[in-house]
């Protein structure tokens, strides 16, 4: 373990697929890095999910097992320090170029690095529906590429109909319906607004032959093991038992206050939530020396995308470091 005086090549805040991919890329080029995880492994976006999907060679693996395998492989290189610490402050401390950064833990410990990788990800803002949290994410799926197939023999439903984009979710769910699952049920949670875009979407939902339940949603009741699924209880007492539900809650950036203080530019997506703006193909941000990897880098949030962005960010970090080192070397050569 390096001392507190160590100047790392990079500080990686967050150790999901994005952060781990940054660490692996830096390891392969013998760069010194520190990667930070909240104590107890808290804060992962897929916490509560039993399996990861749509990730080559790891389809169906438990998220915690994926992280363990990745961590063990990275540790074999011997260039990355894995540190359990909740980072509460990040600061740019050096001129640009060359850049330098510090991160500070909740306990007040400080680490220094030439580059900073933001891999804290995003956090879902769960709706105020009784029972929602108890069903998230093992009965309520936000991505049908990631979840859904394993329950395609069971009836599926769309939870609420808040925007026209949910027509796409209904189409996606229709792709995996089977003779035993029956048509998709759309729970509109009351009357659909008399807005042109929403009424057009309702027409499309009907064209897809979806069942429509217009009652207000009262609560969601998870099935008791060994059964799976969730019962949607509507106003008036009607109960609809579903094998799973599709719903995409809005997201916020993890560590948003720290990101704002760094001056990193944010992009707002009215339907998908904010993400950190990427200014070049290497996932560099608007602040030189700061890179982003994982769910915070894109509105398209998935483990495979997160890992890909992390690998690319690692390449960007190394390229910046090499360019700065060459600039210093050439300046020294001129002085001679």
Automatic annotation (TrEMBL):
InterPro entries (UniProt xref): FAD/NAD-bd_sf, Ferredoxin-NADP_redctase_2
Plastid as UniProt keyword: no
Highest taxon, organism lineage: Eukaryota
Keywords: Flavoprotein, Oxidoreductase
Family to which this protein belongs: Belongs to the class-II pyridine nucleotide-disulfide oxidoreductase family.
Name of the molecule in the record: Thioredoxin reductase glit
Native organism: Aspergillus pseudoustus
């Amino acid at each position: 373990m390096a001392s507190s005086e160590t100047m790392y090549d990079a500080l990686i805040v967050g150790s999901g697929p994005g952060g781990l991919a940054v660490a692996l890329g830096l390891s392969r080029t013998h760069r010194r890095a520190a990667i930070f995880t909240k104590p107890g492994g808290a804060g992962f976006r897929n916490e509560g999910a039993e399996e990861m999907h749509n990730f080559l060679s790891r389809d169906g693996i438990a998220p915690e097992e994926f992280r363990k395998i990745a961590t063990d492989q990275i540790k074999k290189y011997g260039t990355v320090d894995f540190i359990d610490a909740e980072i509460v402050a990040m600061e740019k401390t050096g001129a640009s170029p060359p850049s330098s950064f510090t991160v500070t833990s909740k306990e007040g410990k400080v680490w220094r690095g030439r580059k900073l990788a933001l891999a804290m990800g995003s956090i879902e803002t769960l709706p105020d529906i009784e029972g929602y949290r108890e069903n998230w994410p093992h009965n309520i799926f936000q991505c049908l590429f990631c979840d859904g197939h394993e329950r395609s023999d069971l009836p599926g439903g769309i939870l609420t109909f808040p925007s026209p984009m949910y027509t796409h979710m209904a189409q996606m769910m229709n792709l995996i319906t089977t003779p035993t699952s029956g048509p998709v049920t759309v729970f509109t949670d009351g009357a659909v607004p008399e807005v042109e875009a929403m009424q057009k979407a309702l027409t499309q939902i009907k064209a897809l032959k979806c069942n429509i339940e217009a009652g207000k949603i009262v609560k969601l009741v998870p099935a008791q093991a060994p059964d799976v699924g969730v019962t949607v209880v509507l106003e008036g007492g009607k109960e609809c038992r579903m094998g799973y539900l599709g719903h995409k809650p809005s997201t916020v950036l993890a560590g948003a206050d720290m990101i704002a203080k760094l001056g990193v530019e944010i992009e707002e997506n009215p339907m998908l939530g904010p993400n950190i703006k990427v200014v070049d193909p290497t996932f560099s941000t608007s602040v030189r020396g700061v890179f982003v990897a994982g769910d915070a880098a894109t509105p398209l949030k998935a483990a495979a995308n997160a890992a890909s962005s992390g690998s690319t960010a690692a390449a960007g970090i190394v390229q910046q470091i090499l360019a700065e080192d060459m600039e210093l070397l050439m300046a020294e050569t001129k002085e001679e």
